Amino acid sequence: MLAEVCATGRRLTRKELESLRARGERAAEAGFGLRALVRRHVSVARDTWPTLAPTSGGHVLAAVEQAIDAFAEGHERAQLLAVRQEEAVRREFIDDLLYGRSDLGRLAERAEHFGLLLSRAHTVAVAQGGTPVEDTHPAARQVESAVVARFGERRILLTTKDGRLVCIAPGEQDDVLSFFAKQAYAATDGGRVAIGRPHPGAGGVVHSYEEALNALDLAKRLDIQEPVLRAADLLVYPVLTRDRQAMADLVESALGPLQDARGGARPLVETLTAYFDAGCVAAEAARRLGLSVRAFTYRLERIHKLTGADPSDSVHRYTLQTAVIGARLLGWPDDV
Q: Which PANTHER family match (predicted)?
């Protein structure tokens, strides 16, 4: 090709360029690196230079430039296609893993390709920020770079799902999940991270993932401000809401009379919430609500009069506190 270019001074034809692109694609598919291939092209051009007409140097360099550019284009095209195919395979695997789809045996085989041994127990952490985070989001790249730099040799899978950051790690490696939570919190500008419990097998990943999602949902409904939530610390809430009708009956029975108060039940439910969150210390609860202690104490007395239950009494307190938790979970009084 170079000899003909030197003899005629022509540029490479469309057919020649397409042939070079095809060769570049095949080279990429065969696993050859682009740097070595470019070096080989230049080496061949240098070796054949003495046999070419000495006055055709400009034509030779132009042809070499065209040839390498076409070859590299084909190589890069094949690499990009391979990356996209790998991303599609990875995304399909993640969807199957987190939704519990596909044959579990086949899923375990596929998991090894992505560094997971599903015969072990795994824990899933999920981070949610104010805006959705996808694979190409800067926050996703920032967290992945930090975690890989710190735990590169560990069997960890980092990904995104439904706009959230997800980290899957062996169940006994809590240091990985704690570090992920710290990085995700920073990268999402104060987002919230929930960590499920460790569970064995492919089904265990789904279970832990769902626990983390449920913890995020509970935090939103209960207005929990903690940046890191652990499903193990929130087990009481799923227990309380397992029988929704029974919980609704308790809320209506214990707190229903508050609806007869001036201003409705909401201010008094907020009073009870602050009181219990403050460890039943009236002064602290009053400060949180921006009330005087006297005004806050009057509200407690009003609650006692309407419901017949004294928030300061240890026996009544348990019923009221459980009812308040149920009210927050059910969205009472607005949603029930």
A: CARBOHYDRATE DIACID REGULATOR, DNA-BINDING TRANSCRIPTIONAL ACTIVATOR ADER
Helices 57-99 and 201-222: angle between axes, nearest 10 degrees: 80
Angle at the Cα of 115 (from 110 to 120), degrees rounded to 5?
85
Domain ranges, residue 73: 2-85
- The domain tally of the chain equals 3
pTM: 0.64
DSSP per-residue letters across 291-332: --HHHHHHHHHHHHHHHS--TTSHHHHHHHHHHHHHHHHHTT
Q: Is position 182 within any domain? A: yes
- Domain check: are 219 and 251 in the same one? no
Task: With beta carbons less than 8 A apart as the criterion, state whether 317 and 328 touch.
Answer: no
Could you give the C-alpha distances from 105 to 92, 322, 323, in angstroms and in order?
A: 16, 43, 45
- The Cα-based distances of 200 to 127, 169, 226 in angstroms read 22, 12, 27
Domain boundary among 234, 259, 284: 234
Whether residues 243 and 150 fall in one domain: no
